[in-house]
Structure formats: C-alpha cells, structure tokens
Specification:
Elements: H1 2-25, H2 33-46, E1 49-57, H3 58-85, H4 93-103, E2 107-116, E3 119-127, E4 136-148, E5 151-158, E6 168-174, E7 179-185, E8 192-201, E9 237-241, H5 243-247, E10 256-259, E11 262-272, E12 275-284, E13 287-301, E14 304-316, E15 320-323, H6 328-339, E16 347-354, E17 368-374
Antiparallel strand pairs: 1-8, 1-9, 2-3, 3-4, 4-5, 5-6, 7-8, 9-17, 10-11, 11-12, 12-13, 13-14, 14-15, 16-17
Helix pairs in contact: 1-3, 3-4
Length: 378
C-alpha cells in the first residue's frame, strides 16, 4: 500500500501539469508547419496585409480547454503511472501498475475561466478517481507572452492563495495565420476573452472589367470554406479591422474606368457614419472634374463578407453634386476582389458591421467588425 500512496502523492502535481499542458499544447489556434508555410506564402504573394485584432470568446476557450483535457488526461496519466512504477523494485512493478490503473481513474474539470488583467483566471478541480474525497481545487492565472511573430509562450502562476501546483512556463503554441504583434486578455469586453493583434495577409485579386448588364452586381466574397464544418448559429470569435488598416488598402486599387469616358484615380478608403466610403478623383479625357463619394455597407451572407455599394455621388468641380451610380458595380467588384481572400478557409462570417456590437462592446467605433466562427477552433 505504501507504493500506492507514493503513486497517489506523486500524481497530484503531475496531473496538474498534464492538465494544463493538455489545455495549451494543442490549443485553439494550434497549427502544423504546412498551414504556417501556406500562410507565409500567401503573404509574400499578396505583398499586402491588414492590421487586425482577432478576439476569441470565453465560451469557446472554456469548451475547447475542457474537451482537450478530457481527451488527453487518461492517456497522459497512464504514461505518468508507467514512469513512476518503473522506479519500483522489479518484483513489485506488475501488481503495482495493475492496482494503480484499476483504482486511479483521473479526471479534471474546468470550474471557472474568466479574463482579468494580465491573463485568464482558471479554476480546476482535480480528482484521481470518482468520488475522491481529497479532490484538489486550484486557481491559477494563465498568462501569455509573444516570443516571436508566430509563437506564444503560455505560463501559469497561483492566485488567491491557492496551492502552487504549477508556477512558470507551461508550453508554447503557434499562430496559424498572419504575423503576431501582441496578445492579451480582454476583461470587460463582452463575450471576448483573448485578443491577438496581428498582420493578416491579404491576397489581392485581379479586378476584371464589368459591364452594366452583369448580373452579379452584389456577389459575396469568394471563400473556399465549407459551412458544414462550422457551427453556424454559434459565435466563437471576432475580427476587428481598424479604419486605418482599411485605409492602408487605398494604394492597391490603381485607376479604373468609371463609364462614359470617365476614369477614377487616387482611390482611397475612409469610414464615416457607420459605412465605408470610397473617395475617387474623377477624370474626363484626362481632365480632373471632381471627386466621387461611394457609400458601401458591409454585411454577411452564406458565411462570407458581402460589401454592397449603396450609391455614388460626384461633386463636380467642388460646386455641384450629381449621382454617378454607373460606377457602383465596378467599385463593388474591386472591393470584393481585394478583400475576398483575406478570410478564405479561416473564418465563417455570420455578421458584419461598422463599430461595436452587443457581443464585442470594446471595438472602436470606426472599425469593421466581423462576428462568426474561426475554423481553427473547430
């Protein structure tokens, strides 16, 4: 029996480490080398990127952590028992292993997870077998630190005077998309719990000229994302694209025909009054005649971001304003082409709009906010 007590006492800190390792070694945003390579290749090909903030919801993190804990703890604890038994005298190893694996049925339950300043406060209950009268409830702060543009260091420290089962670095994980700038917890931010600021690669598409009788005037952004693999009603993440980041795409448009011998040049993107506005200098046979203001409303459809051009008005010589809606289709296709690949295969858009919403009240008032599901959290 002294061997069983030895194993039981030794398993408590081991179980704590294994539980936390299981939570983060294969985390919500873990990726393989292929995914990372594809992301880098896409970024190089695009030669452009968006500064974006990805928020993960508290519910999705809690669910993911508990699921991974439940999947991995039995196997990893069995490995720990094997390692402990191997230190016993040879004649005692077989029966000690059989007894330990029969009596010890470990479990770990995530009791609470809450964002606070400096990280996520996590409370776990560790049991070595059902009905364990000596179950340990431990609270700890899980903190995150950027090691480089693709790697996050995860650490734990005790809080609220709880037992110091784990104190220090736990593991690292890779970010599968973009180039990471910072990561932090988000207390008092609605459903969001963790925010990652990164440069998001944008694959700039080639804009094809269209005629006024083209039927696809309000098409959705192209996305090779299977909606069947995602939880459509649920929300596990948000993407916030600041207005300044949207404006950074202005230089990628070049010039484009605007119909009736008009040409649009110096195209720039701004956000105003809950909509995206595209400002263009309009030339007629090479002569500057005024500025066009195109109003664009973001929305979602079929899991894709959809950008609808509402109207275009031309301020002629700065004096008179005339409708110029024959330009709408061209600028709409250009917008959709350029932003379409930014979320391909990575994010299912359930809702899109300018500014904060009830689920993400901390977003800036002039940011493009996408609400939906991130495939990597699946």
């Amino acid at each position: 029996m002294k061997y069983l007590r030895f194993i039981r006492v030794g398993l408590v800190p081991v179980l704590a480490i294994l539980v936390l390792g299981a939570s983060f070694i294969s985390p919500a945003l873990a990726s393989n080398n292929t995914t990372r390579h594809e992301s880098q290749t896409a970024q190089q090909a695009a030669n452009s990127s968006l500064n974006a903030i990805i928020y993960l919801t508290l519910g999705s993190l809690a669910s993911t952590f508990q699921s991974r804990i439940s999947q991995q703890v039995p196997g990893t604890v069995n490995t720990a028992i094997v390692n402990m038994v191997s230190k016993l005298p040879a004649q005692d190893r077989v029966w000690a292993y059989e007894m330990a694996t029969t009596l010890i049925q470990p479990s770990a339950t995530l009791i609470n997870l809450a964002p606070q300043q400096g990280g996520l406060a996590m409370t776990l209950r560790l049991r070595l077998y059902p009905g364990d009268p000596k179950a340990i409830t431990a609270s700890m702060l899980i903190s995150f630190r950027v090691l480089n543009s693709s790697t996050v260091q995860v650490s734990a420290s005790p809080i609220n005077g709880g037992p110091s089962l784990v104190n220090g670095p736990l593991s690292t994980f890779q970010i599968p998309i973009g180039s990471l700038n910072s990561i932090k917890s988000t207390p008092s931010c609605g459903n969001a719990a963790l925010a990652m600021n990164l440069q998001f690669p944008v694959a700039l598409g080639q804009v094809q000229r269209v005629t006024s009788n083209t039927a696809s005037s309000q098409h959705a952004l192209t996305a090779n994302l299977s909606a069947a693999t995602l939880d459509r009603p649920g929300v596990n993440s948000f993407i916030e694209i600041p207005a300044a980041s949207l404006s950074s795409l202005s230089g990628t448009f070049g010039s484009m025909p605007a119909g009736n011998n008009f040409t649009a040049k110096n195209i720039r993107i701004i956000v105003r009054g809950g909509n995206i506005h595209i400002l263009s200098d309009i030339y007629w046979y090479g002569l500057y005649i005024g500025t066009a203001d195109t109003t664009v409303a973001p929305s979602a459809g079929g899991g894709n971001l959809v950008l609808h051009v509402l109207s275009t008005n031309l301020r002629l010589f700065g004096l008179f304003t005339f409708p110029m809606n024959n330009y709408n289709q061209q600028i709409q296709q250009s917008l959709n082409s350029k932003l379409g690949n930014a979320f391909t295969g990575k994010f299912y858009v359930a809702q899109a709009g300018i500014g904060p919403n009830s689920l993400l009240p901390c977003a800036a008032g002039d940011s493009l906010v996408l609400t939906g599901n991130m495939a990597a959290l699946g």
